Every structure is written in structure tokens, then in C-alpha cells.
Amino acid sequence: MRIEITICALTTLLVALIACAPDSTMRSGHWSRRASMQAERSWIGMESVGGKIYVIGGMTGSEGRRLNDTEVYDPQKNAWKYLAPMPTARSAPATAEINGIIYIIGGLALQGTTNIVEAYDIANDRWLTDFPPLPTKRFDATAVAFGNLIYVLGGYDNRDMNIVEVLDTAAKKWSPVPPLPTSRYALQAIVIDDLIYALGGRSNNLPSDVVEVFNPKTQTWHFKTRMPEGMAGFGTVMAEGLLRVVKFDQHFAYDPRANTWQSNLPPMPTSRQGLQLAYIDGVMYAVGGCAPGGINLFDVARNEAFSVKPSAAAASDLFGASIVLMIGVVLVALLARAFGQRVWERA
Q1: CATH number, domain at 247?
Q2: Which among 10, 65, 131, 231 counts the fewest CB atoms within 10 Å?
Q3: pLDDT band at 4; cut points 50, 70, 90
Q4: Tens of pLDDT, residues 158-201
Q5: What is the mean pLDDT of residues 136-142?
Q6: Average pLDDT in the 250-265 region?
Q7: Domain limits for position 258
Q8: Alpha carbon of residue 146 to chain centroid
Q9: Which helix (H) or strand (E) holds 332?
Q10: How far is CA 182 from CA 29, 31, 188, 237, 341, in A?
Q11: pLDDT tens digit string along 5-26?
Q12: Are residues 289 and 342 in the same domain?
């Protein structure tokens, strides 16, 4: 009778230990709300550098007011702060970062489409303006950094464009390269394994599902598997070996090794377009954009995070919980065995 009571008590203790163990709240595959930007805006320029997110320009309001606001988000503090404003207010610019300098190229300014190039110096919180203008003015283009080069792809100015122009940031000189096979704007581009992927966009006034890949070494283009559906004005980022694509209630993932797409992933809490994505320490951040509101779209300052994998703290918590559970199980087993041995000896 005493043995049964003792084992029952030990089992109760084990349950209590498990209940008190740390809980992992940053499970993968879930969205959560983070601190919003200080300014509501869509069609922003954005880059992730040094574990922080920099948001530049954009537009807000039904009249499409162009912005020059610059904000930085610190995920560790879950807080935003303003930085030195961009000299030229604009929306839908192409952006790329090299060595702590964020380049803002083209876009839609107060006076219309622009070819101005300005760069934000992160270390000194100042703007640099001594760059040659983009040879072909346009907005809704996309850009990627490749070494010291910045490739600017596609865009719009009274027509869809397939132009690709390259800025040598060291020599401060522009040059052309072979154009996109498909003219389009509001597309996204990203570098994967030394290849430049150009995804989606709007072509001939229709959303495009085209994925074209440029090899800078051979200066040639080739096609990859199309996106699950045509899409423009979306966000994209590489996260744990997969290319993530997010817009409205759509969330896709592309595996570049298998050349396959996965769809029907968890959608953002706030449906929107004209946003950008960043990836830091296992978390994908969806920032800004414009959300449906009846027949209109309204700009948002939303910052929502998708946990691609558990954070380091969550992993530590999970490890701690496992240790507590293991110790509890061993303790119950050892004590039960000891009591059982004593009963056997008395018998």
C-alpha cells in the first residue's frame, strides 16, 4: 500500500515538473503581430542589414503622397525609430545594399517618374547623392546586389519594361546587360546560388507567373518553374533554403534545388500588397503595404512576423523542458525500483 502511494506521489511530482517547465511560444509556422512602423505606407523601399530592418520612402493616402521618411526596426527591442530622411521623396523605388550602404534607385517622385540615385550610409546616418542617374527612368523596378554591382530589372514608365541596367558602385558607372525575356513591373528579384531570379510582376496589364533566371557569368537567361499563380506587388525573401512569396492571403514557398513550389501556407493576419519582406534569426517580417477596404486600398504600418523556425530562446526553452522531463522520468523509475527491491527483500 505504501509503495502504491509513494509511486502515485512521484507521478504527481513528475506532472508538476512538466507543468512548470519552460514553454516554447515561438513555434514555427505561426504569424504574430510586432510593433508597427511610425508611418503608414505602401510601395516602400526596404533592406535588412545587421539584424535590423530599414524602411525608406513609400506612399500614403488616397492621393498617393510620396514620403521621404526613413525608419529602422530593431527586432530585439521590438521598436522603430526615425533616421535621417531621404533627400528625394518617392515610392516604388528599387533598393539594394552593399557594405552598409543602402541604394535607392528610381521610383515615383512628386514630379513623376525619376531616375535619381541616392544612398543611405547606415554607420553615419547620412545620405549620399553623388551617383550618376539611372540611365532609364522608371518605377516599380526591382534591384539586387551582386558583389559591387547592382542590377536593376524591369519597371514602368508609360509601358512595361524589360530593361536591365547595372551600376558599378566602385566606378560609379552604369552599363546595360541582356534584357529580361518578359517585360514587366512590380516584380521581385533575388540572388540564389550566384544566379539572379526575377519573379512575377505585371506584364501587358496582367499579373505574371513567370520565373526567369539570369547567370551573370554567361550573361544568359533561362526559365524556371512558374509561380502557382500570377502575382505583382508582393514581398519575397530567402529563409532557411526556401524562397518565400507573400501577398494578400497567399503564401508560397519555392525550393530552388527541386525547382518546385509549395502553396496554401499560412497567410498574413493582415491581407495586403505593396509590402516587403525581411528575414532575421528564424523570423520572416512582412512590413507595410496597402490593405483592401471596400473598393479602395488603405495604407498600413503593420509589421507581422512569421516564425520559420523556433528562435534560439525558444529552442533553449524546449531543451530545458526536455531535460526536466528526462530527470523526472529517471527519478520516478529509480525510486520505484528501490521501493520494489525493499519489498522483495522483506518478502
Answers
A1: 2.120.10.80
A2: 65
A3: very low
A4: 999 999 999 999 999 999 999 999 999 999 999 999 999 999 99
A5: 98
A6: 97
A7: 30-309
A8: 19
A9: helix 312-346
A10: 34, 34, 13, 22, 79
A11: 444 444 443 334 333 443 333 3
A12: no
What kind and span of H or E run contains 333?
helix 312-346
Q: Which DSSP string corresponds to 81-102?
A: EE-PPPSS-EES-EEEEETTEE
Taking residues 39-43, what's their average pLDDT?
96
Q: Give the C-alpha distances (Å, rounded to integers) separating 58 from 23, 55, 70, 91, 325.
A: 39, 9, 10, 4, 51
Whether residue 252 contacts residue 239, with contact meaning beta carbons closer than 8 Å, is answered with: no
Let me know whether 139 and 258 are in one domain. Answer: yes
In the chain, how many domains are there? Answer: 2
* HSE (side-chain half, CA atoms, 13 Å) at 52: 17
Long-range contacts, stretch 262-267, CB < 8 angstroms, 24+ apart: 263/228, 266/29, 266/30, 266/31, 266/306
**Distance, CA of 74 to CA of 94 (rounded, Å):** 23
- Grid cell, residue 195, equals 544566379
How confident is the model over 214-230, as a mean pLDDT?
A: 98
Query: Residue 73, Cα to own-chain centre: how many angstroms?
Result: 13
Average pLDDT value over all residues in the chain: 86
pLDDT tens, position by position, 293-328: 766 678 999 999 999 985 543 443 433 444 433 444
**With contact defined as beta carbons under 8 Å apart, do 40 and 61 qualify?**
no
Burial of residue 191 (number of CB atoms within 10 Å: 0-12, 13-18, 19+): middle
Instruction: List the one residue out of 2, 109, 99 whose CA is nearest residue 45.
Output: 109
Residues 169 and 292 in one domain: yes
Based on the fold, state whether residues 264 and 241 are members of the same structural domain. yes
Residues 76 and 224 in one domain: yes
Measured from the Cβ of residue 158, the count of other Cβ atoms closer than 10 Å reads: 7
3-state secondary structure of 339: helix
SS3 18: helix
Q: What percent of the chain has pLDDT over 70?
A: 80
